[in-house]
Amino acid sequence: MSTTVFNLPIVFGTSYSSSDVADVSDAQISAPEQRVFQPDQKFEKSAGKANIQVRNLNVHIQQNHILKNVNLDIPEKKLTCIIGPSGCGKTTLLRTFNRLIDTAGDVRIEGEVLVEGENIYDRKAEVTHIRRKMGLLSQRPCPLPMSIYDNIAYGCRIHGIRNKKELNKIVAHYLQAANLWEEVKDRLHTPATRLSIGQQQRLCLARGLAVEPQIILADEATSALDPISSKHIETLFTELKKDYSIILVTHTLRQARRIADHVVFMYLGEVIEEGTADQVFNHPKHELTREYLSGSFS
To answer: Number of structural domains, the chain?
Structure first.
């Protein structure tokens, strides 16, 4: 089983071998031809929309009712921020979108999560196909234990791309997309673990983009970063939303105000309010939303 990987330490159901390591030198890899990022077309993509619809979703983990009758619509090619106090179910909701919630013990799920109209919790749903559409960028980066180059090329090789010239172009292209190319172009075959934390997070983003998901899931993706690195990631998200639907869980209201197009406010496992950033931040309908935005609780 494979999945789009941003910063998980493995690709599910696969193993790494020395034969997967490129033997090209940094000098053989030229800079990408274009400076403005556009998604590549290496893989066959669905013609459908990349939005997500959640209908009457309930999630029970062991004896705990974590998500309670959640209904919402995630718009296509927008940056959606999920906000709310700690423990309200934000990360659990995010993990239902690519079925990583399946890995938790004793989980019971009721309701529907529709991606391009397909209920991903239908018994006939193919999990590999679902996860191929999505990438996950977690709170703390976890580069694969290999070179910068091989971190980017790894997923492409799994999907059958072995030509070195093509891999060279892919690596350069997506390092540029993650605003990392200029910083690493002369040391592509050094261990990725030598990068700073901020650089590692951008590397993980580039790694996920290289297998071309339609949706980017980000769970507190900047919370472990310094302010400059956080700004890099925020800028990347605002650029990438032209081509991807991005869903960001954030505990930082200032960040959501800066970059969100669409906002979902959660409290104790329920969606209290959702709408455009202007609607939720400037004209909230619910008293709980107003109290949270005013800082009465966090």
So the answer is: 1
